[in-house]
Design brief:
Blueprint (H helix, E strand, L loop, with lengths): L6 E5 L3 H12 L3 E6 L12 E4 L4 H12 L1 E6 L6 H14 L3 E4 L12 E4 L2 H7 L5 E5 L15 E6 L12 E5 L5 H10 L4 E5 L8 H8 L4 E4 L8 E3 L2 H14 L4
Parallel strand pairs: 1-2, 1-4, 2-3, 4-5, 5-12, 6-11, 7-8, 7-10, 8-9, 10-11
Helix pairs in contact: 2-3, 5-6
The structure holds NADP nicotinamide-adenine-dinucleotide phosphate (NAP).
Length: 253
């Protein structure tokens, strides 16, 4: 790869963004990872790091100009839709090239029992009566389920939510996604009979989908809309390829 002194902004908060930062820093590319600052002890990537919101589209546009960013890579979580929309708008305003890493969606297999919905609110309505539900969703969406007083909920998250969600029956378990065999054990131990999750794609949290398939449990799958009008890559290798091409074609000093 030719020498490149311009700065790349990497919107992060995912395993993929961590991997990209490591690879780019190793290739001596000037990379700034941006994290929202939601987790207390994030895994710190190589290269520069900034933490906290930009202040909407205006704030991000200003930041891009001030830092003289040459390229934006959006490797945020598939359901972090706001920052992606802001980054696409700011890229449009500034003319800075933008690439979204968009993990391919999980595909329903023949023996899957999925009920596909568009929002957490629709997922709450689709839960069978009196079910024992494993909620594998972001903590900011918990409240959408709190009116289902008939159901029992278990949610797993990395950190305890700052404010207690307004549930009568919610158990929060601190932890991360596991391999399928551990998820099967977890489902059986907690007598789970329904899974609610988002179609995040990727391998890291697919164990629960396999476990639900093996136990023939219904999965209420919240779908995602892919961002319109944005260049996308499906994995870190594709992103690296795009960046190499960009650097090799551009004469930036
Ligand atoms: P979001 O709804 O798309 O973003 C909300 C606001 O948070 C944005 O408008 C922006 O604030 C700020 N923000 C988000 N990501 C940022 C980043 N990488 N750098 C700087 N500011 C950022 O995002 P979210 O769903 O709350 O997720 C927040 C972060 O957690 C994301 O970076 C994502 O990759 C990570 N994450 C999310 C999930 C999830 O389930 N959603 C799961 C794992 C990791 P301003 O408008 O002030 O710029």
């Amino acid at each position: 790869m030719r020498r490149f002194d311009g700065k790349i902004l990497l919107l992060g908060g995912t395993t993929e963004s961590y991997i990209l930062a490591e690879q780019l820093a190793r290739a001596s590319v000037n990379i700034i990872t941006s994290l929202a600052g939601r987790t207390q002890n994030p895994r710190l990537p190589a290269g520069q790091l900034r933490i906290g919101g930009f202040g909407g589209i205006e704030g991000l546009t200003e930041y891009l100009r001030q830092e003289d960013i040459k390229l934006i890579i959006d490797a945020t979580h598939p359901f972090a839709r706001q920052i992606t929309a802001h980054a696409i708008a700011a890229a449009d305003k500034t003319g800075i090239p933008f690439l979204r890493l968009e993990r391919p969606l999980w595909q329903r297999q023949a023996d899957d029992n999925w009920i596909e919905v568009a929002t957490p609110e629709a997922a709450a309505l689709a839960i069978p009566e009196d079910a024992r539900v494993f909620l594998a969703i972001g903590r900011q969406h918990l409240a959408a389920f709190s009116h289902r007083h008939d159901a029992g909920f278990i949610a797993r998250m990395i950190e305890q939510p700052e404010t207690a969600p307004p549930f009568r029956t919610l158990r929060i378990i601190l932890g991360k996604p596991e391999y399928a065999e551990d998820e099967v054990r977890f489902f059986l131990k907690n007598r789970i009979d329904c899974l609610v999750c988002r179609n995040s794609g990727g391998k890291a949290s697919y164990g629960k989908i396999i476990a639900a398939r093996q136990l023939a449990l219904p999965v209420i799958m919240i779908n995602r809309r892919l961002p319109a009008n944005a260049a996308t890559a499906t994995g870190t290798e594709e992103v690296m390829h795009y960046i190499y091409n960009y650097i090799n074609q551009k004469k930036i000093n």
